[in-house]
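Quick start: read one record
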Amino acid sequence: YIVNRKDFKTDRRIVVFESDDWGSVRMPSKYAYDFLLKKGISVNRSTYNKYDSLASKEDMSLLFELLSHFKDKNDNPPVFTANSLVANPDFSKIKASNYEEYFYEPLPKTLKERTNNSIDLWLEGIEQNVFYPQYHGREHLNVRRWLKYLQEGSNEFRIAFEVEMFGISATAGNHDRQTVLEALAIDDIDDVICHKSILEDGYNLFVEIFKYKPESFIAPNYIWHKEHEYCLSKLGIGVLQGSLIQNEPVEGKTAHRIYHFTGERNQFGQLYLVRNCFFEPSTKPSLDWVNLCLTDIRRAFNHNRPAIICSHRVNFIGSIDVRNRDRNLRSTKELLENITTLWPDVEFMTSNQLGKLIMEESDENSRSM
């Protein structure tokens, strides 16, 4: 945890939950997991390959029920800024094209065909003020890189394709190969043009599905370029979520590491929010994540910073292993009990609400100078 003296400061106890990956297929099923393991792909080495999947009706209902149980000083429940992917590959059409062309299916179709869930439950979460989808991209997938591997006949990607799975983690697959999960990584100059089209397409799909415009974005794997920022600014995205470090892709070279702070603005007027608290119990279940996260929150508040908690979807999914979800929901309950008890003046916000607050205060300060 690094405190930057330029960080946005406030004496309000603000807590934001940012949760990535909602809507992406990742591990399609327990059957797919067992199949890949038998084929020699070490999916057991990756938390995301072991547990992460589309949220079932039970997964979301239990999460919403838990969040609804708590209230802040303004009588608002904790709300997940649910960073969402709005499409997944259409595997049958891609295979029919002999891996030469890319096709996708929109999120409502994916949910209908692959889960007992539907977009209606997502919309209920929005109504209950516990779940607020924001833009994470069209897919959590580097489309051109993936197609290239499939066309070259990559054994692991072809095997995964058989069970309609693309998201092989770096720890599970061939270490000489780049991950396909870095949706906005740049391998050649044409990627930038492709990404612009994908970002615009995904944005329009988001609006079509959720009936509102996303105001914030987080790049898959924290990898993005200023060209992507420009494209997103043109779409009306004013808030960029992220970690302390942005990995800016450079064609054919190692990514540049760029450090950000909460309240920083870029040349397009977009505001950065930097995660400073972490609650990822699926990654290392043996750790005391509740106390680790409370320590992060306490440190943020002691420095008059909002607490921006990173907690991926994987922590709340039970379709591959129900123990993962149930164990982590108990931890989430304990975390929220502690937050509301230790800081009765806490205010739960979405990333967008925090971004708006920072911008308003920044504008006020500018006017008063």
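The first strand starts at residue 13 and ends at 22.
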